Structure formats: C-alpha cells, structure tokens
Amino acid sequence: MSLALDPAAQDLLFREAHTVRTFTDEPVTEEQMQAIYDLVKFGPTAYNQTPLRVVLVRSPEARERLVPLMSDANKPKTAAAPLVAIFAADNEFHEELPQLLPALPAAKDMFYSERPVRERSAGMNSALQAAYFIVGIRAAGLAAGPMTGFDHAGVQKEFLDDDHTPLMIVNIGKPGDDAWRPRAPRLAFDEVVTTV
Amino acid sequence: MSLALDPAAQDLLFREAHTVRTFTDEPVTEEQMQAIYDLVKFGPTAYNQTPLRVVLVRSPEARERLVPLMSDANKPKTAAAPLVAIFAADNEFHEELPQLLPALPAAKDMFYSERPVRERSAGMNSALQAAYFIVGIRAAGLAAGPMTGFDHAGVQKEFLDDDHTPLMIVNIGKPGDDAWRPRAPRLAFDEVVTTV
Question: Which residue intervals define the domain Nitroreductase in the entry (chains A, B) (predicted)?
C-alpha cells in the first residue's frame, strides 16, 4: 500500500463504510455536527466559494413535512433516522465571496455576475462539499444515508427558497440492524483511468 | 472533539492540507494512483453509478497539448506539476449500471434512458467522486491543485469525446516552495447550518 493514511482511518472513511438504511435510536448531537463541519469546511472549492448550505431537520413537525416529499423507498428510512439533513446549493454564494476570498474580492463581479454561471458553479462545488461532508460524518463515527430520490421542487418550496437548490438529503446516525446491502462492485482502475 | 478519526488523519486530509500551486520534482507513480483509486472507489454515488473518468497526462507531448488550454494563471502550474489528471463525467455511465448495480439492473432503463437526465446525474455524482479523489490524493501523502479555469470545450475536443464532459483538472505531487497561500476564511457553522 502506497498510502500515508493509516489503515484504520482508511477503513473508517472508505473501506468499511457503507451507505446505511437503518439506524439505532442514538441521537446525533449538535456538538457532533459542529465537529464535522469544523473539519470538512477546509475542503477545497473553486475560489473558496463554499456554496453548500445545510438544513438540519430536528423537530417532529419538520420531519412530518419532509417524509411525504421523499420517494416511497426513502420514506421509511427518512422517518426513522436519528437526524436528517437537507444539503442545498446557495446560488447567491457570490455575496459572501469578498469575505471568503480576501486575496481577490473582485471575483464576485469578475466571474459570478450572472445567475446561470453561479448556478452551475454552485451545483458542482456544493457537490464537492457534500462529499467532504459524507466523509466527515464517517470521521465522526457515524454513518450517512445520502438520497437523491425526493421531490426536489417540493423540498425547495417547503424548506428552502428560490436561491437555494436542493442537492441531496442525508440520513445520519449509528448503523442499526441489517444496515447495509452487500457491497456492490466497483469499476477496475483500467476502466476508469486512461493515460496519455 | 467529537470525532472518531484520529487527529493526525484529520490534519492530513483537511486541517493541514492545502490546494498547492508549486511542486517538487518527485514523480507520482502508477502504484500511488492505483492505491488512491482502490481507496476512493468505495465512496458512495447514486445507484452506484460512479461516473467519474480520469485521464492521466503523463507524456510530454500530451502536456504540451494541455497547457495552452489552461487559463493564464493555471498554465505555469500545469506545465510544472509532476502529474496532471483530467477529471471527467461519463454521460453514458448507464451502460455499466447492470454490472455496478446487480440488485437493480433495470435502473439503467428505469431512470437513465434520457441523455439530459444522465448529464445532470453524471455531473453531480462525478463531482462527489472528484472530492473523494482529492481526499484520496491527500491520503497518499500528496497534494492536489484542482482547477476549473481552462477551456472546457477545448479539453473535451482534445482529450475526451462527446460522451465525456470535463469537470476539473488536478495537479498532483509533493508540495514545493511557497506552495500555498495563507488559509482563506471559512463560513461559521451558523452561517451554513440552520435547524428546523
């Protein structure tokens, strides 16, 4: 193995980690979410735009509004997870850029004056941050159940606004009984990587 | 700290890791790239679609074709990096789905029969995988310099085809002199996370 990361960390983050569909009742605390954020906030994005925004669905009332918007297969998982997080892209992220990119405050107007450009950039960069966040959930000793099967327009209307596009919804908690399916196959290196 | 991941691994992957702009001459080997891929291939994507494809630019001839397609600020970095990787989304990823998702081989036709749907899905999921890959580069004790500033249509024409959309280009190697700028600020937890 040519990796500097120790094998236990490799297992925790990737090799032994799984997308889970059942959870124990153990709650996910605000302190855990803070610790995850304080780690993964350092992951790189273009011009440090960091467009990911997160809505934590903690109240029973909010959970009741969310579950009907999930696909049928995702309803019971979302109803039962200790914590559910809505990941969204902030299409107006450029408003924060002067603060986030003090080396080039003009980037806000140089690159991001047009909304369609911002939407494309926020879509890609919030997906990068979603992946860092999934890694961070695992770094906290928790498991993630990311889902894209939901009524995106409905979730945007019910929990977000016109400036925030939902990206995925993630169940978070400790794995429960029969929490994951057998690992699905992955493509071989040579099927993914070519050299020129 | 509420994290299970040990602090050295937190530093390696996030806290002490930086986007780099200079590198030493030490080469990045095929074995290192294999080890990175064999770790990050396990990162989750929707329906295990794993649409990321990677072109490693190793020959001087290919490097000479790539550098002029980079933005001016990225040309010298891309010319000097030990290894340059083009990350792309495979918009025809559904062809591999029956192999990748044996639990639901019908997903290929149920969800992904239309090209625009595939392009959106490949864009988001290849970005997730790009983030896992950046984490993996750091796990290998290397540094990444991801860039979106390049002629996307030109790179697609020169190195890819109509079915593969370039996502980012990543310089890879050991950090050199003055390799990074001071860390830019990050948003506070309360600016990113709301609770309902």
Answer: 16-174
